[in-house]
Structure formats: C-alpha cells, structure tokens
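Entry 14. Ran structure prediction on the chain below.
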Amino acid sequence: MKLAVVGAGAVGSSVVELAGEYGHTVTALADSRSAAVDADGIDPAAVLEHKRTEGVVGAEDKTAALEAEYDVLVEVTPTTLGDAEPGFGHVQTALERDRNVVLANKGPVAERYGELQDLAAASDGEIRFEATVGGAIPILSTITDFDAKHITAVRGVLNGTANFILSRMAAEGLGYEHVLAEAQDLGVAEADPSFDVEGTDAALKCVIIANVLAEGEREYTLDDATVEGIHELPASALELAKADDRTIRLIGEVSSETVRVSPRLVPADSALAVTGTRNIVQLETTHAGRLNISGRGAGGPETASAIFADIGRLGSR
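Output, structure tokens:
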C-alpha cells in the first residue's frame, strides 16, 4: 500500500525506514514544518538524513502530505489533549478523502472518540489504532478477537517511564528525583516527564480501552478517569512494601463504569510486577479466565510493528 506518514519523530521515522520490509511504499512524510512528497515513493534514507541535518524533511508545505496520493494515512504526531488537534484534523482530512487511517496518536481516540467513529462511518476508509495502547503489545486486537462483551475488566502497567522509575526506586532504594534524572539521562524519560509520571499517558490508554469495551454505548474521555501519578511517591513507601514482599506499580484499570490510574501495591512475584520499561496487561474474560499480555510498550520500531499490523488488518472488518 501507499502510505503518507504525518509525524517524523521516533515512530514516524521507524515507519518510513521499515515500510519496504512490510511491502509498502511511503509516498509522503511530514513533520511540523515541512513535507517530502513523491507519488513513486520517497527515498527513506535521504529524507531522514535531510531531517537530521537540516531540521526538516523536505521543501514542501506540511499540508502537501495530506493532499498526496496514498492508501493509508499514518498519524503519529505528538498526543495533545482537549480538541486533540492537529491530529484530529489530519484524520478528518484523510477520512473525508475516503482514505484509511492508522493512528499511534492517542489524542483523537481518547478525547474525540465519538466524532472519530462518525467520520469513519461516513467514509469508505477505515480507522485503526492498535498502536495507541501498549506499543507492540496486541491489546486492542485481542479484545476485538475475544469480543468486547466477553472482557469484564482490564488492568495493567501501561507506561514504561513510570515503571522504570518505580523499578529502580524499589531495587536500589533511591529517591524519585535521583531516578528521574537517571531516566532522563538514559532517554527513558522526557525533559518534561509530567505526561508519564503524573499518570496522564496511562490514563489516555485506559480511556481508549474503555471506549473499545463500551462498543459505542458510552463515550469516555480523560475527564472520566481518576488519575494519580508517582511523582509524589516517597522511597519509604517502596521500602515498606518490600518488607512485606510487595512492590508498587502504576496500575491502570478499566472495569464497568470505572477508569482509574494510581500507584498500587502488588505482590513482588505478581505478573504485574514487571520491571524496567516493560508493560503488561491483564484481561479478565468470561470464558477464558485471565489473560496476561506483556512486551515492549513503547519505542519506534516496536510501535511501528503495531502500525504495520493494523495496516494488514485493513479490509477485514
């Protein structure tokens, strides 16, 4: 298929680099200021090198990517809250052109889910968003395969940055600020880590899960979530937990009428006690018991793999 990629960060760059391996051609790539467009396919190495050296992907206006010839718009711009722009507008433009859309951007799915579904219903294009939750982990597709009405609850560790910090605090007895600085030095945490450590990122993922489980009977947004982060958690809390053979993890939970993210005590040998940047999700099912799905919840190639899986699912609805 022909892909137009909007967003040239780690995920967008990985999509461009790996598209050929999955049998696709990238005809357009846009960053926040420019675009590179070629109906026969852009040169991935040349365009990404231009981005690295010049700070922009090409010489055309960024809107040219949305107007290009493509089968699938891959929307991987940074997540924004509230009106979820400009991501929502990118999706709207593509669907109104009857093009397919695959998202890694959580904003439109978490904050304007109903509008997104209405746009898709009126379009010949499809919309898919596996990559918005859990990176490479097939969480949403598993829910769909089992049928949402047979999933009674979902819980898990859904933010690698917060999990890295809690893991290091527990293992080394270090304070939050010390470990945060270490995470930033390693590139695990952003310069402004608030989205991760305050629980917002995990909450957005839980909201998306809640919308999928609701199957259109109700729409959830971030305002419906109860959110508590780890930024005020003292090292002593982890020490006390360790003395009782437990630890603390930032747990997101979705159940009937409830979307919640907060630090929770879990047994040290629990499946939820994953370490480092690893994510895990537990699905409670009506007939298959509890399913644990774990893996890399972030990263360019990892998230790109979920995007390509979604592209492969197009046409199967």
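The CA atoms of residues 128 and 310 lie 6 Å apart. Will compare against last week's run tomorrow.
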